[in-house]
Amino acid sequence: MKQKPLALVLGAGVSGLALSIRLAIKGYRVEVWEKNSFAGGKLSEYQLGPYRFDAGPSLFTLPTLVEELYQLAGKSTEMFAYERLDPICRYFWGDGTGFDAPADPDQFARAASNTFGVPEASIKQQLLRSKEIYDTTAPVFLFRSMHKADTFLSKDFLRGVARFPQLQVFKSMHQAHASRLNNPKLVQLFDRYATYNGSSPYKAPATLQAIPSLEYFQGAWLPKGGMISITRGLESLAKSLGVQFSFEQTVTQIHHRKGVIQKVCSQKIEIEPNLTVSAIDVAALYPLLSPKETLPKRIKEADRSTSALVFNWGVEGAFPELELHNIFFSDDYQKEFEQLETQSGAPDDPTIYIYISSKKVEGDAPKGHENWFTMINLPGDKPLSREAQNQARKSILQKLERILNRPIESKIRAEWILNPKGIANRTGSPDGALYGSASNQRMAAFNRHPNFSRRFKNLYFTGGSVHPGGGIPLCLNSAAIAANEIPDA
For residue 269, which phi and psi values (nearest 5 degrees)? Predict the structure, then answer.
């Protein structure tokens, strides 16, 4: 019996897992190499004594993209369970203003109008504009290759061209929000969606207004068992299809000849795959090909997305004033983003995000305790000194204790810190950039690396550093787009 062709996937992040499943379904013999001892990449976990932390993404949208993989494999989607969140997030401002964001768009508009004094109709209009932009752009930018001629001849693309004025590509997100929502706090709430792909609302095109549409019209979710359940489920599904995993396997060199990848070497073994898929950061892949192979200039010169400083705290006590997702906003949002560009270390008054999975996942913290994933944005391309890290910790705690009017530092029973250098080491993302390139330019969606190589006919790309971008849904879409470029075995 003829042996199936071998597909080698480099990296077991969510996109690598998804593509390994798709390749197995296409009839390939699939091996996955992962430099860590665990799968998931950024979508992983960390155990700190009795506290468990989701170590990366914490909000889940478009669960149908995961269900699709089970359906393609002929498995029941009941194997993957999740619940809808309501409220989606709890917001705090330094002057004492608070707001719970309802999941239903009509309820959101009503509640936001009552809190911020903006006409309900204006808020509904903003949400509908978000949905309109998503419905127009998603079929082209999120679900198709942006590097194939047929995309630009498709009905979806032509429909988008006809609606070009509505996409507001020549405005920034902030300009679009400020023109419609006459309240700085509500503008800030919508502006923060730029951070979902590591960008600045003062630079990112207003097209990114599409992002909140996913939460308010399709839902924000949490998998049963926490975000790590996505990784566990996909890894298990891949193994059930015969995918072989090799952990603690770091690629050292990729040999090629006449436009064909011939051999891939790690520090332990070498193999000769029929095709190779890079699910690692594209900036880390190119040096493995040879010193002569360099990133395309437009990608090399693109702004890197923000990184993060994360304090994972095991906290004694219950905090009913906090939800699963919580945002403590900066008093000067524009200054925060300016400082992310111009200075090393943390901004003077950073926006703080806290995710507490133990609110929903039993066993993530001991009874009477909580697990706080506490994060601020940092520049990924500037060094973070120990002194600056300690100062950021102090500032975060002071701000939280002031707004919540409760002692917190004295309640911390365990701590694990993840800074940009740690993120880079753990995930292989250069500079610890969470989303590869930022989307601060109008043409950012067109400038991402394609899901295939123009130089090597058997090399493909997937993941957050290539088209269509970072975040769980986009990484899953990236795997689907790459799989469409790969012929059946």
Answer: -140, 175
Beta strands 98-101 and 352-355, pairing class:
unpaired
What count of residues does the chain have? 489
In whole angstroms, give the CA distance from residue 449 to residue 301: 12
- Contact predicate 201/194, CB 8 Å: yes
Rounded Cα–Cα distance for residues 205 and 174 (Å): 9
| Cis previous bond, 184, omega within 30 | no
188: three-class secondary structure by DSSP: helix
Short-list 148, 146, 241, 253, CA closest to 489: 241
pLDDT by residue (tens digit) across 79-104? 899 999 999 999 999 999 999 999 99
Can you give the pLDDT at residue 441?
67
Q: Alpha-carbon Rg of the chain, whole angstroms?
A: 22
Question: What is the Cα–Cα distance from 231 to 212, expressed in whole angstroms?
Answer: 24
What is the pLDDT at residue 161? 57
Residue type at 201 in one-letter notation: P
- For residue 224, which phi and psi values (nearest 5 degrees)? -60, 125
Helix-then-strand count for the chain, H and E: 18, 19
Domain 6-43+226-295+449-485 has CATH 3.50.50.60: yes
* Unique residue bearing structure tokens 């917190």: 408
d(CA 375, CA 368): 22
* DSSP string for 361-419: STTSS-TTEEEEEEEEEE-SSS---HHHHHHHHHHHHHHHHHHHTS--GGGEEEEEEE-
314-338 pLDDT tens trace: 999 999 999 999 999 999 999 999 9
